[in-house]
Amino acid sequence: MLLAVLTDLHANREALEACLAHAQERQAEQYAFLGDLIGYGADPSWVLDTVINYVGRGAYVLMGNHDLGVLQADRKDMNANARAVVEWTRGQLNDYQKEFIRNLPMQIELDNLLLVHANAWAPEKWEYVDGVMEAGRSINATQAQITFCGHVHRPSLYHMSHAGKVGEFTPVSDLSMSLSKLRRWLVQPGSVGQPRDGNPAACYALYDTVQRELSFFRVPYDAETASQKVLEAGLPAVLAQRLIQGG
């Protein structure tokens, strides 16, 4: 099965459309959305409706911290810009969309795979996996051989040997790699809707569950339009600029 893994969509319609079209062209058979469907971007309703449509076809979807934020009146743990967008987003969604978010799980286990938004050791605390130490902690918190997670907004690939040593690869776009059964892996596909590694192109990954082959992709999209929509919605200008700069 060819699984498309997309995370941190952040209400970016243009980026999501581009990634879904890219995955379809490559004959993706299943889809997993790892949370933060909304927040930051200007099209939360459209993005949610699109994800809900994919759920109807069997897609997997997780809760992210921005998704949860829409359900909570006070999110002091978020920075001012994120809080402003959460409050605006809450007013854009209907009751059905909010109920959909409310019922999302924090993690999903699929055979030897774990899907989670932030990390495996405490999914509900939203702590980041942003280095080999945190990657090792997350890998050791699960029995899954391969963990897919988001939250950091940049593509990364970590691996752990039988001896417990953790290493990191820098992913190369469009290059397929085999994930050896002799190691355990943590895959961060990068953000669809708001990349933060200096490259504005949207990110996602494809994983062949039979051949155990993983590919990272960077997908150019109309970031200018997405950025202009953020401004027109009256959302913080820095969020529009991030889309153009890739962080």
UniProtKB/TrEMBL annotation:
This is Metallophosphoesterase family protein. Transmembrane segments: none annotated. Residues 1-210 form the Calcineurin-like phosphoesterase domain. It comes from Undibacterium danionis. Belongs to the metallophosphoesterase superfamily. YfcE family.
